[in-house]
Design goal:
With about 130 residues, this protein is mainly alpha-helical. It contains 6 helices and 2 strands. The longest helix is centred in the first third of the chain and has 29 residues.
Amino acid sequence: MRVEIKATILAVSASALVLALTFGITPFLRASLAADSNGKVQANNSGAKLAADLGAGAIQGRNLFIRNCAHCHGDDARGNEGPNLHNLAMNDERIANRIKQGIKGQMPRFESKFNDLDIASLIAYLRTLKD
């Protein structure tokens, strides 16, 4: 099989998985929401609220970020050793390349640790970070 066909199959499969996760988790998230005495919807726990705010792909990205990136970029991604990641101006392809290749002497390469779906999830999370 040619490389382009394999890449296309991988991209379609990853997209289908993200959609399945997004739409498959929605009923569970809605079930965990409750109305208070004023009729305002509130999350029963912080995980459900986070899920409702971010979406499934971004939740996975946040989990990956906390485990792999927060020690340099900070738990809130506002920078520490690494730069602030809020309001990134780079396009998704450039962010993906930066994650895969790293920055010599500043950021490790993650291309052997993260697959394309992981990187897409990280980017989805980074896109939620606004000042």
